[in-house]
Amino acid sequence: MTLDTAIVNGTIIDGTGNPGYPGSVGIRNGRIVSIGRHAGHAARCIDARGLILAPGFIDIHTHSGAALLADPRGVSAVSQGVTTHVTGNCGNSVFPPAKMLRPLFKRFGLDPTWEDLRGYISRIRKQGVGLNIAPLVGQGTVRSYVMGDTARMPSPHELAAMKRLIAQAMEQGAFGMSTGLIYPPGCFSETDELVELAKVVHDFGGLYASHIRNEGAGLVDAVLEAVSIGERAGVPVQISHLKATHPRWRGRVGEVLNLLDTARERGVDVTWDQYPYTATSTGLNIFVPGWAHEGGADALERRLHDPASRQRILTEMRQSGKDWSEVLIISCPAHPDWKNLTPVQIGARLGLPPEEAVLEVLSAEGAEAKMANFVICEEDIETILRHPVTMVGSDGVATAAEGPLGHLPFHPRCYGTFPRLLDRYVREKGVLTLEEAVRRMTSAPARRQGLSDRGRLQEGMRADITVFDPARVADRATFDRPDAYSEGIAHVLVNGELVIEREGCTGKLPGRVLLKPPRRSPDGAPAPTLQRAM
Q: Which of 216, 231, 142 minimizes the C-alpha distance to 182?
C-alpha cells in the first residue's frame, strides 16, 4: 500500500480510553488507512519513537469564529494539538450580522460581507483555515439582530423571526444553538423564550450549549434552568465551562455535580466542559448591572456619564460584595499603565474606591477593557475533572503571538489549555490517566457534536492526529506572558496535512468547516448526527 504519510514507532492512544499500545498509523487522501502496523511505502515517514499518537484534540468551547478570518492559521490552537474548534459559543456567533458584533469585528479588523452561516462558510473557504470549525448559532446574536439590545420579552412576531433565523442556521449546517445568559442581550431572555428557540434546535437534532445565567451565588438555580430547557425542548444540553465562582459554592461543586447526575439518571441528556484555570476572563463590563446594558454599548457609555445612572450602577456594584482584589485588568489600550493591575490598585492611584475605578476604566476603554477574575478554587477544578462526563474546552480564541492578532491580549488558556491538562492534571497530579484525558479531549467531544469520523484513531477516520511527548508536554503561557506557546506537541495533522511539524507551525491551511446534514424529519425527530464538510 502506498501511503501519503506514515507515523511509525509511536504509542497509540486511540481516544476511546483504552490502554495505549505500540504501533504506527498510515494516512492516504486525508484518512487513516492502516493502524497498529506499518504497511507499504510512504511519501513521508515521521518517526514517533518515544511519542504518543492520539486523535487531534477537539476544543468544544471556543470563540474563534471571527479570529480565524483575521488570522486563519490558528497557531495558538494547533500548537496545543487542537484540530477542531467548536465556535459560536456563549450566545455569540458571527452570523447573522447583528449590531452587537461591531466591536468584535472592529477588534479583529474585519469587514463582514456575509449575512448567514452559508456566507461565512464561503468566506472561510476562499481564504482557507488551519483547523476545522464546527459552528453553533448564537441566541444572543439572533436576538440582537431581531430585537436590538432591548430588555423585554419578544413579541410573537419577533419570536417567530428568531425561530426562522435559528432554523436557517440549522438548515445550513449549524450543530446547535448557544446562549450566554450573563451577557446582554441573552440575559434579557426568559426561560420560556429559550425553550421555544431550543425546540427549533430539537427539530434538527441539534445541541443546546449554555453559558448559564449565574455561576456565582445563583449557580444551582442556573444549572437547573439549563436542565429544564433541555428537558422541555427535548434537546441535549452542554453546560459551558462549569464552575463555581462565589464563596458560597467554592469547594462544594460536588453538590452541583450530584444534581446533574440526578438529572441524567432520569433521562436528561446533559453534559459539561471546563477549562483548567482558576481565573475566568471576559469583558470588564460584566460587573455592570444588566439593566445598564439595555440599548447596547453606546447606551451603556451614556449611562456611565449620567450622574444619576452612574450612582445607581455604583450602588448595585457595592451591594454585590465583590472582592475587587480578585480582578486583574488584562487589556486597556488607552491606559497601558493600568494593565495587570486590580481595581483596588487602580483606585489607589486615582484616589477612588475600586467600584469607581472599574467605571473609570470602562469610561476610558469601553468594549476594549478585558479582565481576568480569579474566583475558581483548585479543589473544584479537580472535582469537576474527575467526573467521567466532563470534557475540555478552552473558552479561548485561536490566535498567534505574531501576525495580525499578535497585539491583542488574551487569557493564557488560548495558548495552553490542553497541554496544561496533560502536564498538571495527568503527569503531575494524577487526577486522570493519560488515556482518560485523551478521551475527554477527543472521542467524547466528537460524539457530543456528532463528528462521526473524527476523535478516534481507527481505519477510515479523518486523519486529524496529534503526536506529543508525554514527558515534555506542558503549557508555558501565564498572565505575565499569555502568548507563550506550549511545549512537547511535536506534530499535528489536520485532514492528513501537517500544520505543526517538529513543534513549528507550517502555515498550511487544510482545515474545513464541519456541518450537520441540512435535514429535518417531518415528525420533528432528531436528524442523524453525521457530518459533512465544506
A: 216
Element (H, E) at 501: strand 497-501
CA–CA dist 205, 235 (Å, integer): 7
Contact 495, 464 (CB under 8 A): yes
E-assigned strand segments in 36-146:
42-47, 52-55, 57-59, 82-87, 132-135, 137-138
Contacts of 333 (CB under 8 A, 6+ apart): 365, 368
In this prediction, residue 332 carries a pLDDT of 86
CA distance 282 to 314: 20
DSSP string, 133-200: EEE-EEHHHHHHHHH-S--SPPPHHHHHHHHHHHHHHHHTT--EEEEETTSTTGGG--HHHHHHHHHH
Residue among 173, 238, 181 nearest 204 (CA): 173
239: which strand partners?
210, 272
**Adjacent-strand bridge partners of 53:** 12, 467
Residue 52 CA to residue 466 CA, distance in Å, equals 8
Residue 439 near residue 13, CB atoms below 8 Å: no
Number of helices followed by number of strands (H, E) in the chain: 17, 23
Which pLDDT tens digit goes with each residue over 36-71? 887 678 999 999 999 999 999 999 999 999 999 999
For residue 446, report the phi and psi dihedrals to the nearest 5 degrees: -60, -45
CB 310 within 8 A of CB 286: no
Identity of the amino acid at 523: D
CB 84 within 8 A of CB 443: no
Alpha helices by DSSP H, 306-402: 307-319, 343-350, 354-365, 378-386
Provide φ and ψ at 523, rounded to 5°. -90, 5
What integer best gives the mean pLDDT of the chain? 94
> CB neighbours (10 Å) of residue 22?
11
261-308 pLDDT tens trace: 999 999 999 999 999 999 999 999 999 999 999 998 889 999 999 999
Residues 6+ apart with CB under 8 A from 434: 13, 20, 52, 422, 426, 470
Total residues found in the chain within this entry: 534
d(CA 72, CA 505): 12
User: Quick check: 529 and 452 in contact, CB under 8 A?
Assistant: yes
Q: What amino acid is encoded at 317 in this protein?
A: M
- CA 161/CA 337 separation, integer angstroms: 46
